[in-house]
Each structure stands twice: as C-alpha cells, then as structure tokens.
Amino acid sequence: MRWILVAALVACSSAEPERAGEVAPATSVPPQAPDALEIRRKALSAELRELVGELELAGRYDCCIETPCKLCAVRAGGCRCGEAARDGEPVCEECAMMWSKGLGDEPVPASSIRSFLEAERQQNGDICGKPPVTAE
After folding, report:
1. Which of 18, 64, 88, 100 has a CA that sits 20 to 30 A from residue 6's CA?
2. 3-state SS of 5-20?
C-alpha cells in the first residue's frame, strides 16, 4: 500500500503544474511526425508562390528581388518594394536581406537598399536597450 501511495505522489509531483489563470486544453493534439510537418511546409510554400503569382497578375505585386518575396503577400496582400527601391524608400526585411545576398532586381545600387527597420533606426536612432517611452 505504501508503494502505491509513493508512486502516486511521484506521478503527481512530476506532472507540469497549471499556470495561474490558464485552463488546460480538453484534448491535446499529438505532435506531428517530421515528415508530415515538412509536407505541410512545402504545401504552404507552394500556396504562397501561387498567391504571389496571382497578386502579380492583378498588378498588386511589384517586388524588387529576383524571386519575389513572400513576406509582403502575408503581411500586406501586395508588394511595392520594387517601386520603393526605385524611389529610394525602404523595402521589406525579406527583400533587404536578399539584396544583401546579391539577389536584387532593380536598376539601383545595392547600397541604397534598406529595410523598414533600418530606416526606423536611421530616423529615430537605435532604440535597442533603451527603456520604452511612456506617455505622461
């Protein structure tokens, strides 16, 4: 009897405690096998490529890199990074990264390309490590 009690206490103490205010899910979904996740990732990537193609045909995708980015499709449902690059304006983070790898596709120098984050830092200074500004 004593062993049963000890086993029960050990089992209960090793269980992950619930966090305050959180409700445990009614059913848990078992993790998917790596192969199933890779299949889903490839399907999602293909669907995004298709979406970008449709947005290009609709005149809503003017990307500045050789293979159009997917970030603008997800974030904004369109891309104007090509126009922005030609006008000296910031581009999305994916486009900026691809330009840094030599994959830009606009008649502008790569040194003129900067991401929205870089433009924000140039305008307002690097705010990393500084406390947030609070409204008074």
Report:
1. 18
2. HHHHHHHHHHCCCCCC
d(CA 83, CA 41): 30
Under 8 Å between Cβ of 81 and 69: yes
Token pair for 29: 């979904």
**98-126 pLDDT tens trace:** 999 999 999 999 999 999 988 888 888 76
Number of H helices, E strands in the chain: 6, 0
Residues pairing with 115 in the sheet:
91
What pLDDT is stored for residue 81 in this prediction?
A: 96
Contacts 24+ apart (CB under 8 A), 110-117: 112/85, 112/88, 113/64, 113/85, 114/90, 115/90, 115/91, 116/90, 116/91, 116/92, 117/93
Tokens 């486009």 found at: 95
